[in-house]
Amino acid sequence: MFTLSSIRPFSCRFTRHYSSIPKPFTYDEAERWIADFTKDDIPKEDLSVAFSRSSGPGGQNVNKVSTKVDMRLQLDQARWIPHYARVKLRDSPRLNKTGELVITSDKSRTQSKNIQDCYDKLTSMIKQAVVVQREADQDTLARIEKRRQREDGKRKELKKRHSNKKATRRTKNNDY
């Protein structure tokens, strides 16, 4: 038989599950993390680097030397990236089916410059994922609300003018 006493409260069943998900940084925490993060902080053991022949600059050197760099980062193993940033990076078009973030470079004629370019690209992608939008202060919110009300008033005034224009075109006594 179903009784009210047999139902467990909602908060007891689900609160623990959702409290275990880490919350994003505050704006200040994210700014500090971004300022401190450099490409030297990326653990080398989390990356896999492969080289291949490039289609980039180099003349006949392109046919002989493997200068194109293919760098891969397994996102699930990158615990040094904040959780919410890893979730953002999972939506990246550079993510393959196995969950690896793939960065390539063939800008330069040398492997070392292409590796540095890949590190720079990866660092900027991670920093962009960590960014948190700043909360609006009360002055900004008030200014936005004032603008919204002004735009609503303009829109209503235009609708009223348009309605009056149409109403004056109508005649009361049609002889047709």
TrEMBL record:
InterPro entries: Mito_Release_Factor_mL62 (IPR052104), Pep_chain_release_fac_I (IPR000352). Pfam families: RF-1 (PF00472). GO terms for biological process: mitochondrial translational termination. One of its GO terms (molecular function) is translation release factor activity, codon nonspecific. Residues 142-155 have a biased composition (Basic and acidic residues). Residues 142-176 are annotated as: Disordered. Coiled coil: none annotated. It comes from the Eukaryota. Residues 53-69 form the Prokaryotic-type class I peptide chain release factors domain. This is Prokaryotic-type class I peptide chain release factors domain-containing protein. It comes from Absidia repens.
